[in-house]
Amino acid sequence: MAVPWEKYFRKTLQEKLPKKIPEQNADHFPPVLRLLEKRQELADADRGLRAQKEVFQATMAALKQRREQLEKKEQELKGSFVRFDKFLQDAEARRSCALRRAAEARHRAGRQEAEALRLRAQLEELQRERARLQRQLERLEPCARLLRQVLEQLPQEVPELVARFDALADTQAALRLTERERLRELEEARARLQRLRDTRQDELLRQGQRRAQLLDRLEAARERTLHWESKWVQIQNTAAQKTLLLGRTRMAALNLFQLVCQHQRQPPALDIEDTEGQLEQVKRFILDLSAVLASLPQAQPAAPAS
Hints:
By secondary structure, this protein is mainly α. The chain has helices at residues 5-16, 31-153, 158-264, 275-295. It contains four helices and no strands. α3 runs parallel beside α4. The longest helix has 123 residues, at 31-153.
């Protein structure tokens, strides 16, 4: 169950003040001693208030300095995060550029190797075709001599047939050349398709690596966020405790100020929030009361009754 602030501070002040003399023995002391007792109580209360004020001011100064240090560290950490992110981006850009250049070099080497293989195969095919034609020429050489001899003995229409045969042979050779060109184009298309497949695989691999790196950075950012959120909650809790202590101190000062006003039978002339003015008013009251007590003559204690 929560205790009201006024009762709490009144109880605390009563615990710190020296205990009073029992009521049954109060009649045996003169008024001067009671005034001295009140003066001692007020002096103790004044010292306690000054000590609490100094402790409160020191605590607030330390809290302010700690808050400034935390803000400075937060700015430094933000700058470090920005520089680190920039460094990661630059490193990622350099790595991507290097991977891209390496992939392009591999692709160029693959294309050059494929081109060399194609040219080598084409050269071998041409060499085989040349050998075949050479063998066919050697095999048909006797027939050609025989035809030339027959042509010399045939009428004039035979050369037209020979020209027709030569035209058909040239057409057949042209068709064979066209077929070889089509086959070469087909091989080139297959090579381009294979290169496109290799490029797609490399791109998928790069994207997978990039995704893994981004996930790692996201997890690290989440951990940093949780860490600073816990720090912020801790700072808020500390500030709440200091605010509660400040409220208790101000409540104690207000209670003392109200007691002084009641004793002087004057309405409170200061604002409730003016804690320093209230403490100054209490201090002046204590000093005035001390001066009054000091101006009183010292009375001799009464002789005990026989």
